[in-house]
Amino acid sequence: MSEQLVSILVLLAVFLIATVLPVHMGALAFVAAFVFGYFLFGSEEYADLVFGFFPGSLFVILVGVTYLFAIAKNNGTVDWLVHAAVKASGGKLVAIPWAMFAVTGALTAIGGVVPAVVAIIAPVGMSFARRYGINPLLMGLFIINGATAGGFSPLSIFGSITNNVVAENDLPGSPLFLWVASIVANVLLSVLVFFLFGGKKLLGNPQRVDLDEAGTDGGARSVAVGSPSTGGAAVGTPGHGQPGHVHGGAEERAEDKAVQTTAVATADRPGPVTTLDRDRTLTLVGLVVLVLGALLPIGLDIGLLAITVGVLLSIVAPRGAKGAVGQIAWPTVLLICGIVTYVGLMQEIDTPGWLGDNVAQLGAPTIAALLICYIGAVVSAFASTTGILGALIPLAVPFLLGSESIGAIGLITALALSSSIVDSSPFSTSGALVVANAQENERDSVFRSLTIWGFSMVAVIPLVTWLVLVVPGWL
Description:
23 helices
């Protein structure tokens, strides 16, 4: 058995073990890099080689943007954005799901970890759904889709991972196209959700939302996410225990994924934040600076810029910085750095080239591209989207670039969408958070519906993105 094949089997074992057991995938990937590297390179060389694969620039981006997001959450800027989104809708009932879509998209676009943002907004959205008779499945899917839509911005976790892997492998890429494609796909999907799950009834409903309730504490049940001390996640409601007690192993596995990816804690406040004070204004200015630094071709490193903005806010507005370092998405940082380090070892022994040679013998690169998209969708529905993005892109793209019919940008975008849209599965962290925030008497129904919807996305999205983005070969 070749060392390249062994490296692939080890990677599959990492995903499998982390999916079925409460073991952090990133830590497991570091162990795999240590053990496999030792046997490959010997006791004298392996450590320097393995540490050389550590993604330093990606580490700084992940720490910087989630540090800044934690400050924005602490000083009430996130609460103000929620209130502003609902106020901009005029309080119209039909516009509330779209307001939740917009605010979750904005928060993930500026660097919020997708599960953490869903954990913050889901209690608000599901509370509105209960109070005003909106289908909880509609509201939950809008929140998840909004988070995914913003998740591929150049500042976001998903976008940073994808763009860094593309750049480090000297592959053609378009960060703006990736983000726009994610927005378009999730908006279209949300339109479908709107009409499938009760949106028509909202169109003629004159009832309006009380704007005084439009904050992240607006009557919602509390959801504790990512204790700074443990990096874990407890998803549940007071008096009702964990959602895993309702659905057994399925949601417990979903909660294990939350342990790996979520680290922003929700803070209790006496009421919704409806005004801009000095600290929130400065935070918004800092976020605008970060966005401009990411979008304008001025050559600034986004991670270093994010940390700089965060440090400046800590100096001029120290109240919001209290505890922010503890709320950095350390589980996500460990996850991505572990996976990317192990994938770097795989690249050192030319596993992508070995795969490319074997696929070339099959003479069907287009079909291989479809299979890669399905692998991303299936694994991500149960495991970590961030982990699968860091692993599959460097392994998938190089051996498919040999075909003139396969465009790198199209394949990367198709793989990214296939791996992220399936997060609506209740076995994924975002889906599990929506289930946890549903009313107890609706939780079983929401769980079943999200299971059907999530696996429908696993079946449909890879095929659609492959037909649109890969088969024509126009990207």
